[in-house]
Structure formats: C-alpha cells, structure tokens
Amino acid sequence: MKAYIRKYYYGDYGESKQGPADVSTGARNKHEWPLWEIFIRSKQGLDHKHVGSLHAADAAMAIENARDVYTRRMEGVSIWVVESKYIHASNPDEAASLYDPANDKAYRHPTFYDLPQELKHI
Predict the structure, then answer these.
(1) Which of 43, 75, 39 is nearest to 54 (CA)?
(2) Spatial contact of 81 and 62, defined as CB atoms under 8 Å apart
(3) Of 13, 20, 65, 79, which shows the fewest CB atoms inside 10 Å?
(4) Rounded CA gap, 10 and 69, in Å?
(5) Residue ranges of the chain with pLDDT lower than 50?
(6) Partners of residue 40 on adjacent β-strands
(7) Which InterPro entries does the annotation name (predicted)?
(8) What Cα–Cα distance (Å) separates residue 18 from each residue in 6, 14, 52?
(9) Given this model, what pLDDT does residue 51 score?
(10) Domains along the sequence of the chain with CATH
C-alpha cells in the first residue's frame, strides 16, 4: 500500500489549475489556510492600526508573514494578528439606531472637561 504525502509551503492554499482559490464565498476547502487580519503599532503611534490581511496556517506563521510583508522597513514595534472569523462588526445601515442612545448624553462629550496641559495624547 502506497501512502502519498503532499507538502504545503507558504502560499499553497487551495490553488487549482484554473487559478487561485475563491476565498470570498466562505466555503472552506481543507487545503485553504484561514484569513488573518493584521494590526501594526508604529514607533510613533500609541495604537495598533489595521494594515491588511493575509493567509497563514496558524498565528505564529501569520505573525512571521506580517513581519515580512508589512514591516519591511522596521517601522513597527508590535504586531497583532486576529483570525478573520473572530471579528464581528456592526451594520453601517443600522448606525442611526445603534448610536441613538448616546446622542442624548451630551455630558459625555469632552467639550465639558478642561484638560491639563500635561496631557499630550488626548
């Protein structure tokens, strides 16, 4: 009995002879790597910013690939990776009803507070 082993390398995620795999359908092929969202914190920044997406087999590979793709000039100090299936977002069409309860709480706006001069990042 012969056993066949297929090796997968970076970038091998569901490509066929017809071209690259269609990852927009949501149908998961067992050969497709999951999609990861990449967030980078720059040297001057205080927060992480979304810079793009990539496919990787696991979180460690996603961090390595993100380092190679998005921080080639040593501009980042921290990388976050989140598998796309774990990100949930509100619907922009429902923004009015979502933010409506906050509109009547004007006291929460920062215009009512005097900030000291020492606070530079607010």
Answers:
(1) 39
(2) yes
(3) 20
(4) 13
(5) 13-27
(6) 49, 79
(7) PaaB, PaaB_sf
(8) 20, 11, 26
(9) 94
(10) 35-112 (3.10.20.520)
